[in-house]
Amino acid sequence: MKKGTIFWISILFILTALSIVLVIKIYPKEVKINEQGIKYKLGDEQGGSEQLVDVNIEGHLYQTITGKRRFEGTIDIEGEEISVPVDQRKLNIPFSDEGWGAIDYPYFLYRKKDNAITDTAIYQYGSLVINRDFSKVSIMVAEQPKQPNGDMRVSWRSEDGQMITVPASSRSEAIRLSNEIMKEFLKGLQLK
Questions:
Q1: 74 vs 63, which has greater pLDDT?
Q2: Which end of the chain has fewer CB atoms within 10 angstroms, the N or the C?
Q3: How far apart are CA 42 and CA 2, in angstroms?
Q4: What is the rounded CA–CA span in Å between residue 14 and residue 9?
Q5: Is the peptide bond before 167 cis (omega within 30 degrees of 0)?
Q6: Strand (E) positions, the chain?
C-alpha cells in the first residue's frame, strides 16, 4: 500500500471513531424512574417526619458536546399537589455544573368562552439534583409562604428544608444519598 492510502485510511478510521464517540455522548438518554423514595424534613429534631412516596420521572437527559446537561420530561410525586394544568407539566430543566436544576412550571391560563390566554404564571416547585447517570435523585422542595403584600416567596433552607430522595427507604439512607449527590452543590456542608 502507498503511504497516501494508509494516511487516508487512518484519517477515515479516526473520524469514524470520533463520530461514534460523539453520537454516544450526545444522544439523549431515556430516563424512566418509577421507584419508592422518602420525603423528609432536614434538621436534627425532624426525625419521624419522613414518609415513603412513589416517584415517577420520565423523559430524556440531553448532553451537549461541552458536557452541559438538560432534562425534558415529567416528574410525578405521590401526594404532591401541583397547581399547574396537567397538560402543561412538561419540564425543561437545564443543570448547573454542580448537578442541580430548578423545577419550574411555566403555564398559561385560558378564558373558557374562546380559549384565549388570560394570564401566564410560573409555579416553582423546588430544585432537582441528580448524579451523572440520573439514577439517584434529590429534590429540594421549596416552601411557598405568602408574604403580607400577597406575593409568593419561594425558599429552601439546608437547616430545615423539605426533601424527597430516590431511591431510598429510610431517612438515614436518604440523607446519605443526598449528601453524596449534592456534594458539589453543598460545597462542604453536610445535610442532617
A1: 74
A2: N
A3: 69
A4: 9
A5: yes
A6: 29-41, 51-63, 69-77, 91-94, 100-110, 117-130, 137-141, 162-166
3-state helix, strand, coil in the chain (%, to 5): 25, 40, 35
Whether pTM > 0.90 for this model: the answer is: no
- Average pLDDT over every residue of 129-148: 86
pLDDT tens digits, 21-33:
777 677 899 999 9
Q: Which three cell numbers stand for residue 173?
A: 439512607
The values of phi and psi at residue 159, to 5°, are -80, -35
Structure-block grid coordinates of residue 171: 431517612
Identity of the residue numbered 130: I
Name which of 75, 120, 119, 67 is nearest 93 in CA terms: 75
Closest CA to 95 of 125, 132, 56: 132
- Report the C-alpha gap between 6 and 140 in whole angstroms: 56
CA distances from 77 to 7, 69, 74 (A): 56, 22, 10
Q: Cell for 97?
A: 455544573
All three cell numbers of 80, joined, read: 404532591
Contact status, residue 75 vs residue 128, Cβ threshold 8 Å: yes
DSSP string covering 143-156, please? B-PBPTTS-B--B-
Q: Provide mean pLDDT across the span 147-158.
A: 72
Q: Which of 179, 175, 174, 176 is nearest to 189 (CA)?
A: 179
